[in-house]
Amino acid sequence: MKAFLNRRYHFSASHRLHAESLTDEQNRNTFGKCNNPFGHGHNYIATVRLSGPVDARTGMVANLADLDRFATDNLLGRYHLVNLNTLPEFEQVVPTTENLAIEVHRIFGGFTDAFLESVDVEETPNNSFTYVTPSI
To answer: Which pLDDT band, with edges at 50, 70 and 90, does 136 fall under?
Structure first.
């Protein structure tokens, strides 16, 4: 029997959307106000969707305390109150929320107690981006 577990994590971070391969004018036209040289911030919500069998002994797909500890150490400790542009994973990649979702997926791929189905990162109440684990 397979069950799904969705867990949400909140963090605040800033970024500037700017591609070095574009001219300043192209960046302004492409990213608009998000190309502000001083950056801007978001209160992100990352939702992690895990699946697996329900453990007969515990009744859980994964231990939430273990998952929260993993998230604190690997997600929140890395991204909360940080300018995403300063991180190595965004040196060559524009820190869009699409790319952030891919990075959050990469992080939670290291949580091995359950299968990572997908990651959804909400940037604003109107914008969220989902990255789904590719089929094998």
So the answer is: low
- String of DSSP letters for 90-135: GSSS---HHHHHHHHHHHHTT--SSEEEEEEEEEETTEEEEEEPPP
Summarize the confidence of residues 14-21 as an average pLDDT: 97
Provide the b/e sequence for 89-110 (b: ≥16 CB within 10 Å). ebeeebbbbebbbbbbbebbee
For residues 119 and 105, the answer to whether their CB atoms sit within 8 Å is: yes
Sign for the CA dihedral angle at 48, 7, 82, 44 comes to: positive
Instruction: Identify the structural domains of the chain with CATH numbers, from first to last.
Output: 2-132 (3.30.479.10)
Contact 46, 99 (CB under 8 A): no
| Sheet containing 40-53, strands listed edge to edge, beginning at the edge strand earlier in sequence | 82-83, 2-15, 40-53, 115-124, 127-132
What average pLDDT does the structure give for the chain? 97
Q: What is the pLDDT of residues 72-122, one digit of tens each?
A: 999 999 999 999 999 999 999 999 999 999 999 999 999 999 999 999 999
